[in-house]
Design goal:
It is a multi-pass membrane protein. It is built from 6 helices and no strands. The chain has 153 residues and is an all-alpha fold. It has one domain. The N and C termini lie far apart (58 Å). The model has no long low-confidence stretch (mean pLDDT 93).
Amino acid sequence: MGDTMREFLLAFLGSFTGAILFNIERYNLFWAGLCGGIAWAIYKFLVLFSGRAIYATFIAAVFVGLYSEVMARRLKTPAYVFSLPGIYPLVPGIMAFDTINLLTFGKLEEGINKGIETAATAGAIAFGILLASNFYQVLDKLISETLNKKTKK
């Protein structure tokens, strides 16, 4: 099995088990895991293609937001059921560890740079999900209003 498939499966399992920790219903576990797996695949592809981790994180987070909204409507469940486990593979945990490690050992300039990168990555996750969720909700409202106007005529 290739490295890419292995990473996809690990991201899937990380999101799947995270969903278990949040006590998500059994029938939603697969979909929550799939969200994390696909988000990680998008992230890896974009990092390889562009070399920009923050950009890749943002695009993957936009995917998580859109996926969560679509699946929430289809499965009649809140969007956070998919978005919280879906971002697990994207969370910059090792970057935060590296930041603290560098600062602890007195490498202040490197630590501050790594800290800024960590904060930017976390911000990209938050902004990507926020942007996608709001876009989807506005679009959904516009479509439903348009359909309501047509049915009233």
